[in-house]
Amino acid sequence: MIKNNKIFDLKSLDYFILAPTKPPIYQQLFSPLFSEKGLEVTVKRLDLLHPDAQGNKFYKLHYNLKAAKDLGLRKVLTFGGAYSNHIHATSFVAAANGLESIGVIRGELIVPLNPTLKDAQNQGMLLHPMNRTDYRQKDSPLILEQLKGMFGDFYLIPEGGTNAMAIKGTKEILTDQDLNMDFVTTPIGTGGTFAGLLGSATAKQQVIGFSALKGDFIFSEIDDLLQKHEIIPKCTYNIQTAYHFGGYAKHKPTLIKFMQELKKEANLPLDPVYTGKMLFGLFDLIQKDYFPHGSKILVLHTGGLQGVRGFEQRLGIQL
């Protein structure tokens, strides 16, 4: 039985968000640079996949919610910063599926709440601030036991959503329609999307991840994810660490100008944390002849646009 775009299990009346029935939207980008280099660049608009679980968050959360239901748990708890896309998406999909949600927020809650946290609260998420010292130990048994003491039993989703269920979902991002692409690009945060792509890309493809975080630790983190989840990539892959613009959630005027121009010229909205940095890096690599002439490049738009409101509010910059 389908109701309000959600599917209900007739036996339990529990339901889950599903992939939309419409085919994914692909947007081809045009630029004199691409013509000069003989490249075809296409954006897979995962940001348009689902209104509440935008971009890669849909894939990360889908099987986690199903796992919570299978375990008989009616409450999910997760972690994130004050502008977290993951917190935002979790609050919406939990509410849509009749689950309670708890968001453990790094640092104090500043009132009035920013748009991200206000949305989450409006969806029924209980926001629980945690000081930064404890937050750094959030995965420790002691902290988790304290949280269980406060909130009772819950299904735990880690910060950013990356776990086995998330990677199971992100392996499904690439479909048969994408097999003719030579290169696949994605932003990297916690690494779950990148790991999933490495588990599904073909031997003829190269997956390029653009790290949003400063530092080379991302290489070991990806190696750990691949080992932990027993992923042996058939494809080649590359991690770019030169386009972080100062670190996570940081930016520079050159990035903002690039994003504004791309939105004006291609009607492609980006966020300054992930997708903006990826596209900036992609254009730079193209300029530097990273890609062979005739290559087809698939760019994954992983969402994150809800965070633009808070960014514009804080800095008075219109994206």
DSSP, total strands:
13
Order of helix and strand elements from N to C terminus? EEEEHEHEHEHEHHEHEHEHEHHEH
Overall spatial form = globular
Q: How are the strands of the biggest sheet laid out side by side? A: 4-5-13-10-11-12
Just name the CATH architecture of the largest domain: 3-Layer(aba) Sandwich
The overall average pLDDT, rounded, is 91
Percent of residues in helices comes to 25-40%
**Relative strand content:** 15-25%
Radius of gyration: 19 Å
Stretches where pLDDT falls below 50 for ≥5 residues?
A: 1-15
Main beta-sheet strand count, sense and barrel state: 6 strands, mixed
Number of domains: 2
Keywords: Hydrolase, Pyridoxal phosphate
Protein name: 1-aminocyclopropane-1-carboxylate deaminase
GO molecular function: 1-aminocyclopropane-1-carboxylate deaminase activity; D-cysteine desulfhydrase activity
Modified residues (N6-(pyridoxal phosphate)lysine): 57
